[in-house]
């Protein structure tokens, strides 16, 4: 407690000093402030059946993340972000804490080479280093913004970047002949530190070299290598995983139509070796991806092909966001048997605590119900197929429509010679009704559907037939300037049978699990939202949540939720 008050007092003393020297020392501030509260109440049949769980529960807090930028000269910037958080329901600082959320040093050497030391955001390609989106988030209506912003901010999700710690540097040179420019980006990151009598230190080294030619041709080499340091542990074996991705890109404009052609190919090696240098286990795999895009003012379309070998492994590209072995924040244990509730659409949509923000050296668990086709993004192994995307927007920007479809097949069967056939399709539609009808108040309607289907022939034991459907919709109506009424729905259903793979420590399949699904989940939302600016708003809403797993009578949950969020990005 004394240390907490010392930190707070130090912070209060430091801020005025920094503000006084803001002009001369070039100190400036940004950050985030948030106040959040929710309360859930049991409803439905479980309210009467469950006699051990509380009738309602909730939590809330206020938090301020103060970002301080020190720029002693034009070449150096020191950035730190301090979090001050206070949980509701505590007095005299007993539920408060202060910690350092981010710290980095950025600079430029000789006006050519930039560097970043400390916390950094890194991304390469979808096969080397990429933080792909979580399931059930595709075409999500904007009325769910409060939940989405919370999850992304708390887990350092910036687009598809991974937040890592280490050293990054990049530079570029411009030429005046056939080569327009040469760019290079390199990094060294410490993914996992030394653990006492545990796993060894895990590092990742990587880089990208890019050459732009004058004929709009771009050639790039992307490489990452995640490896454990043998001397940092008493383990008899250490892990290594180099991955290389070669890229060719070409663009051409003909009249009003722009074509973009891209080709990715490469491979990975993954294994474990003893301290004497001998290999315990090693596997390798490759991939090929080709894509052609056509773009005009009003539409863009793309057609692609993708092949990912069965043994392709990439820690930087296959690490998942959702951690299904984590405990949910809302009614983690329920029913009279105090069973741990499995992660559901409710948690994926609203709970930042079930998310992962570190790279994994093994294929993380996933739920086939929510992601049967691409649980590891575009780098999902044992897939070959094609995909198509069409995107349309009218001149006024009042209508936006997106359609996509993909068909994949397994390269080799799992536990049988029969192969899975997989089809996914999505459709999204956004209409600014006020622009179309001339309505005075801003009104926006959004709707989308996403479906997956998996089938496999063979005997009764081999055959698979699984289908899932996600329907989402949102409507916002501006009552007066910047103050709007919002409503939305997310409805998910999955039915059929699948076969789950059980893997050993080397990710090799050692067994199978028969899975049966008949599930229905709904989230209904109605609320009010006021936007001071795009990034400063408050949202007050009520949710009705229903989870019904018809294969298990106890796996049912109905909740009524009141949710408040005030978010301010500076």
Annotation keywords:
570 residues, single chain, 22-stranded antiparallel β-barrel, mainly beta, two-stranded antiparallel sheet
Quick synopsis:
The protein has seven helices and 24 strands. With 570 residues, it is mostly beta strands. β2 and β3 form a beta hairpin.
How would you portray this structure in words?
By secondary structure, the chain is mostly beta strands. It has helices at about 1-20, 20-25, 45-50, 145-155, 315-320, 345-350, 435, and strands at about 25-40, 55-75, 75-85, 95-110, 115-120, 160-175, 180-190, 200-215, 215-230, 235-255, 255-275, 280-295, 300-310, 335, 340, 385-395, 400-410, 420-430, 445-455, 465-480, 485-505, 510-530, 535-550, 555-570. The protein has a 22-stranded antiparallel barrel. Strands 14-15 form a two-stranded antiparallel sheet. The chain starts with a helix and ends with a strand.
Q: How large is the count of helical segments?
A: 7
Largest sheet: 22 strands, antiparallel, barrel
- Radius of gyration, whole Å: 26 Å
Overall form: globular
Helical fraction equals: under 10%
Quick check: average pLDDT?
90
Beta content comes to: over 45%
Structural class: mainly beta
Layout of SSEs?
Blueprint: H1 2-20, H2 22-25, E1 27-42, H3 46-49, E2 56-73, E3 76-87, E4 96-109, E5 113-122, H4 145-154, E6 162-174, E7 179-192, E8 202-213, E9 217-228, E10 237-254, E11 257-274, E12 279-295, E13 299-308, H5 315-318, E14 333-334, E15 339-340, H6 345-350, E16 383-393, E17 399-409, E18 421-432, H7 433-437, E19 443-456, E20 464-480, E21 483-503, E22 509-531, E23 536-549, E24 556-569
Antiparallel strand pairs: 1-2, 1-24, 2-3, 3-4, 4-5, 5-6, 6-7, 7-8, 8-9, 9-10, 10-11, 11-12, 12-13, 13-16, 14-15, 16-17, 17-18, 18-19, 19-20, 20-21, 21-22, 22-23, 23-24
């Amino acid at each position: 407690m004394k240390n907490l008050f010392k930190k707070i007092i130090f912070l209060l003393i430091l801020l005025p000093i920094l503000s006084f020297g803001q002009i001369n020392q070039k100190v400036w501030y940004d950050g985030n402030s948030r106040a959040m509260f929710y309360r859930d109440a049991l409803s439905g049949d479980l309210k009467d059946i469950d006699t051990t769980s509380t009738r309602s529960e909730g939590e809330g807090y206020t938090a301020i993340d103060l970002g301080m930028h020190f720029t002693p000269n034009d070449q150096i910037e020191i950035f730190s972000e301090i979090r001050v958080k206070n949980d509701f329901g505590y007095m005299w600082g007993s539920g408060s804490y202060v910690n350092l959320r981010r710290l980095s040093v950025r600079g430029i050497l000789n006006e050519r080479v930039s560097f970043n030391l400390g916390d950094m955001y890194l991304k390469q390609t979808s096969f080397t280093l990429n933080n792909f989106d979580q399931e059930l988030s595709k075409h999500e209506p904007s009325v769910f913004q409060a939940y989405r912003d919370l999850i992304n901010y708390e887990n350092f999700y910036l687009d598809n970047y991974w937040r890592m710690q280490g050293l990054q540097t990049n530079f570029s040179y411009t030429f005046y002949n056939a080569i327009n420019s040469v760019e290079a980006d390199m990094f060294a990151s410490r993914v996992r530190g030394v653990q006492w009598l545990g796993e060894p230190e895990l590092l990742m080294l990587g880089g990208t070299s890019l050459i732009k030619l004058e004929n709009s041709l771009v050639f790039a080499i992307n490489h990452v290598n995640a490896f454990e340091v043998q001397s940092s542990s008493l383990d008899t074996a250490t892990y290594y995983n180099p991955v290389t991705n070669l890229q060719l890109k070409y663009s051409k404009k003909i009249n009003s139509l722009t074509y973009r052609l891209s080709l990715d190919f490469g491979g990975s090696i993954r294994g474990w070796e003893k301290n004497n240098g001998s290999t315990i286990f090693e596997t390798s795999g490759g991939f090929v991806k080709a894509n052609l895009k056509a773009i005009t003012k009003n539409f863009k379309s793309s057609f692609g092909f993708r092949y990912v070998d069965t043994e392709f492994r990439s820690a930087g590209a296959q690490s998942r966001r959702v951690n299904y072995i984590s405990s949910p924040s809302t009614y983690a244990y329920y029913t009279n048997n105090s069973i741990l509730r499995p992660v559901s659409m409710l948690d994926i949509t609203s709970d930042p605590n079930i998310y992962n923000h570190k790279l994994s050296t093994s294929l993380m668990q996933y739920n086939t119900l929510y992601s049967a086709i691409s649980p590891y993004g575009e780098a999902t192994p044992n897939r070959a197929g094609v995909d198509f995307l069409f995107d349309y927007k009218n001149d006024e920007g009042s209508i936006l429509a997106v359609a996509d479809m993909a068909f994949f097949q397994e390269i080799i069967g799992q536990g049988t010679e029969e192969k899975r056939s997989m089809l996914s399709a999505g459709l999204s539609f956004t209409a600014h009704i006020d622009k179309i009808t001339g309505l005075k108040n801003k009104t926006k309607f959004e709707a989308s559907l996403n479906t997956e289907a998996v089938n496999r022939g063979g005997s009764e034991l081999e055959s698979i037939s699984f289908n899932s459907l996600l329907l989402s919709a949102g409507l916002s109506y501006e009552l007066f300037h910047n103050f709007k009424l919002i409503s939305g729905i997310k409805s998910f259903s999955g039915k059929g049978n699948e076969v789950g793979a059980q893997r050993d420590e080397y990710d090799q399949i050692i067994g199978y699990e028969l899975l049966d699904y008949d599930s229905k989940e709904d989230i209904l939302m109605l609320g009010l939202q006021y936007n001071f600016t795009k990034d400063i708003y408050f949202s007050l809403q009520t949710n009705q949540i229903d989870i019904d797993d018809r294969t298990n009578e106890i796996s049912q949950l109905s909740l009524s939720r009141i949710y408040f969020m005030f978010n301010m990005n500076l």
